[in-house]
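Suppose a colleague, Dr. K., hands you the sequence of a protein chain of 209 amino acids and asks what its three-dimensional shape might be. Before reaching for any lab equipment, you can write down a predicted structure in token form. Begin with the sequence itself:
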Amino acid sequence: MKKQVGMALLDRSVKGVTLTHAGHAVMQHALRLFQGFEQLSNELGEYSKGVKGSVRLWANMSALTEFLPSALASFLKVNPEIQVEVEEQLSGDIVKALMDGIADIGVFAEGPSTSGLETQVMGNDELVIACCKTHPLNKRKSVSFEECLQYDFVGLNRGSSLLELTSRCAEKLGKQMKLRIQVRSYAAMCQMIAVNLGVGVLPKSKPWA
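The predicted structure, expressed as tokens, is then:
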């Protein structure tokens, strides 16, 4: 190894042997290699137990809370030998991961360019406005998105497909959303909306709608 890298990996002295800076770098790479071999061994072990395949599935938050649970349950019931690794990500990151080969299957919101990918519609969300019981909109039987733009909004974190969609709709109307608070989940949105910190756009089919 010393001849291969062209420099000393060990520093020997009367006090003992220590790693040089190059030695530390080699050790870190060696540890990663051992971890990779261990992971490979574990995966091969799964095959010996009857697991015949592994699928890396990335999905956005809406899909994970609405479409995927029942679909995954049905699939795994018929294909118990398949191991599915599910990871929550933003829609744009999911598309990039599919193109880079990091993910095998992705479920994401319409919007990002999918050139080179095979896509199929999995479902549609009906969006509604949520507000506090004391909010002026609560007395309305129906309201347009444009009318809602005069009020403060509670939205998801930047990069979320729902925030990008509503922001684009506001821009088409020549207006901007007044984002007062941004959170990372629908549950957190509902909590903020419930105490009248703003209105929010949510999928109607969610259990808290």
